[in-house]
Amino acid sequence: MKRLVLGIETSCDETSVAVVSNGREILSNVIASQIDIHKRFGGVVPEIASRQHLEMITPIIKEALAKAGVSLQDIQAIAVTKGPGLVGSLLIGLSAGKALAWSLDIPLLGVHHMAGHIYANFLIEEDRPYLEPYEDMQEKTLCLVVSGGHTDLVYLEGPGRFKVLGQTRDDAAGEAFDKVARVLKLPYPGGPAIDKLAQEGNPEAIRFPRSYLEKGSYDFSFSGLKTAVSLFMQKEFSKGEYALADVAASFQEAVAEVLVEKTRQAAEERGIKRILLAGGVAANSALRRKMTELGEKEGYHVHYPSLKLCTDNAAMIAGMGYYQWQQGLIDDLDLDAVAQLPLEDLSILPGK
């Protein structure tokens, strides 16, 4: 029997609605991006993002239902991002979700945004291998969650149990990409722009610093790397010895190297053999390449979602919400949006 969950994601600058069957099968996953609106400002403007969500949420809900070939009356639960994120943006999605849950008299499921990103690894995609929530979660697993606002190393202790081993102390990896892109005069969003330019450059041309912090720490820091790139552009680049593509490739390599090495250390010390990637920066080609090479060299089982499921989307929210529903974790209609929401506050992962 199909159990349909409608997911809503509005944590930042994408308005997304999806319909997912039984927590795994994506029937529709509609994403309306605001990139063209925010690129003139070089980043997301929260008030503008909220207004765009308000304009787009209803038509996107209708489109997601139409693409899935279902009606609102077929939906059996509503999953919506409750945080973390831009609180104004979160409130638009949350208000829509509450209205639907109340009018249809069906469960409301508030989902942690980063847990949704982790869950994207369990969604079924025809052209890619996928993980089984029950079977694969029995193996100790480590997930590197990297996005514009987060860089977290998360130990999945088992179904229902998170432990954050490390996180960023300053700039998140995606934030560093955006800031360096501005220094290099590349368009917003910075991550894809740097990744594209880096394909033409030499990643070993410039040895930018790698910050590993104190021994034994799984935390991350990218502000020093960002400053190093800025100083290099001011003092060295004008000499004409390097191409801009070399700077992009060398910066990207420095970020990816630290992310992979920290993940390797944590996996080795805890005897973990399964490594997941999640979040927008998980789409970065250098990070995927280096993590795949690590897996092949040292025997780790490395898995990451397709590019379209790395970025913010509602299918991951619907999928995560389904498993919360199965475990009886249903929210009241007074559920509020939370801008800062630690991942360890959530006690749910796919499991029986």
How does this model look, in words?
By secondary structure, this protein is an alpha/beta fold. The chain folds into two domains: 4-127 and 309-345, Nucleotidyltransferase, domain 5 (2-Layer Sandwich); 139-304, Nucleotidyltransferase, domain 5, CATH 3.30.420. The protein has twelve helices and ten strands. The protein has helices at 35-38, 46-68, 87-104, 113-119, 133-136, 173-183, 190-198, 223-235, 244-270, 285-298, 307-310, 314-326, and strands spanning 4-9, 14-21, 25-33, 77-83, 108-112, 141-146, 151-158, 161-167, 274-278, 301-303. Helix 3 links the parallel strand 4 and strand 5 (108-112). The longest helix is centred in the last third of the chain and has 27 residues, at 244-270. The mean pLDDT is 91.
Architecture blueprint of SSEs:
Layout: E1 4-9, E2 14-21, E3 25-33, H1 35-38, H2 46-68, E4 77-83, H3 87-104, E5 108-112, H4 113-119, H5 133-136, E6 141-146, E7 151-158, E8 161-167, H6 173-183, H7 190-198, H8 223-235, H9 244-270, E9 274-278, H10 285-298, E10 301-303, H11 307-310, H12 314-326
Parallel strand pairs: 1-4, 4-5, 6-9, 9-10
Antiparallel strand pairs: 1-2, 2-3, 6-7, 7-8
Helix pairs in contact: 2-3, 4-12, 6-7, 6-8, 7-9, 9-10
Concise account of the structure shown:
With 352 residues, the protein is of the alpha/beta class. The chain has helices spanning 35-38, 46-68, 87-104, 113-119, 133-136, 173-183, 190-198, 223-235, 244-270, 285-298, 307-310, 314-326, and strands at 4-9, 14-21, 25-33, 77-83, 108-112, 141-146, 151-158, 161-167, 274-278, 301-303. It has twelve helices and ten strands.
